[in-house]
Amino acid sequence: MKIMNSGFRRIFTVALLLLLCAGVNAQVLRTGYFTEGNVMRYRLNPALMSTRGHVSIPVLGNINIDAMGNVGMGNFLYDSHLNSDKLVTFMHPTISADKFLGDLEDENKVALNMDMTILSTAFHAWGGFNSIDLTMRSSTGVSLPYDMLRFMKVMGNGEYNFSDVNVRTRNFADLSLGHSRKITNSLTVGARLKFLFGLGYANASFDNMSIKANADRWEIMAKGDADIALGGQFGHSADKSVNGKTMVDGYDDVKLGMNGFGMGIDLGAAYEFKKGPLNGLTLSASLNDLGFISWSKAAHAAISPDAPYVFDGFDNMAIHGNGNTLDDQWEGLRDDLEDFFALEDKGERSVTEGIGAKLNLAAEYEMPFYRRLSVGLLYTGCFDGPYTNNQGMLVVNVSPLDVLDFAVSGRVGTYGAGFGAMANVHCTGFSFFVGTDCFLSKVGKQFIPLENMNANVSFGVNIALGKAKN
């Protein structure tokens, strides 16, 4: 089975498409962190017991899709000057370099994450709160430096240097077992043990790339590598060689199944002040996703800056005629990227990596004049290589009825600011929540986000168990 005409080209192209159609670190809705009736809040902090147990509706128990970035689709797709109902890429000659480059950052990043709960149950027993979850998790990130995009657009004579190009996708199943209990009347602790089954992984990065361009040829010196763990291996073509070395050309024989294995743990604690001047204040903290996945038999390719290779330029873009569709333009760009990034097959190796550890620190204050109203502050830090980010969130929570909760939030962080909201209904036999941590910002007439790629949607349908517990 052949899924790519060029191993790295396809990885890189998928990354560019994600920049244009975006899913690092969400698991469930953060706006629901302080909502006691939220049956999934223990996923953010294993010490936070939900007021009710639950059994999930298969696949629908929790679906969370989260996109973050400091660029948006509007940075890479533009209205056609010839037909405003069509779109063209930033490489189209009708798009000026000043227009494209003017809104870019030094490092242009997008991270897309998806969390889908296949099966889940939680219940109060054995002196505490217990949970079992089987979840599918996917995380894809793209980091492109300004100078690389400038070179692609301008392609003038001169010297170009850039580094920190990264494209990564990580996909795995997470089987978690959790337990939390009260140590004292005020202190609650919890933990979740995770078994991680790697389904697919690809990572490509270039630490350094220098280009000398003149009227006759473009010479490239590069240092980079790529790893793909999908059960197959790189293909080769005698027509593609650099300095006498055959470069990879394709990735064949994909095998669906477990391509890696790992383990992880979540740790959490919460302390509630029940008397004195701090009565009504709850402090909590958690460390999530402390763990690793070892991807066995990953296909490995690399290039070292021992000698330059020649690149002919980005000249395959469809410009005129009826064939000038967006797909044609992307296909032309894919063909050019195949030659721009050249990698030599290095066989197989085992790759062990973390899964993006997360730190949550929170404080919630219950209003003394109305105990059903509270205000919370939540800090979240995700530590995941080039996609490390920080975020602070202010959340206002209200539960007008025992079976109904609302929350509104505002956040600011590495990828800008945004607003969110959540509604949660829970009664014996039924639980439903829907919300967002960040509403989609300004969109164009084709409904593409024109500003930073920050958006989130989350919902879940579960069977609530028993009466609510305090």
Write the H/E string, N to C.
EHEEEEHEEHEEEEEEEEEHEEEEEEEE
How large, in whole angstroms, is the Cα Rg? 25 Å
Euclidean distance between termini CA atoms: 55 Å
Shape: globular
Could you describe the largest sheet, including whether it forms a barrel?
19 strands, antiparallel
Give helix % range. Answer: under 10%
Describe the structure.
This protein has one domain. By secondary structure, it is mostly beta strands. The strands form three sheets. The protein has a 19-stranded antiparallel beta sheet that branches. Strands 1-13-12 form a three-stranded antiparallel beta sheet. A two-stranded antiparallel ribbon has the order 4-5. It contains four helices and 24 strands. It has helices at 7-21, 97-101, 146-154, 326-340, and strands spanning 2-4, 53-56, 63-69, 77-79, 87-89, 107-125, 128-145, 158-162, 165-182, 187-213, 218-229, 233-242, 245-252, 260-272, 281-303, 309-311, 344-354, 357-366, 373-383, 389-401, 404-413, 416-427, 430-436, 455-465. The model is unreliable at 1-25 and 317-323 (pLDDT under 50). A hairpin with a 7-residue loop joins strand 4 (77-79) and strand 5. The longest helix is centred in the first third of the chain and has 15 residues, at 7-21. Helix 1 (7-21) packs across helix 4 (326-340). The N and C termini lie far apart (55 Å). The protein is globular.
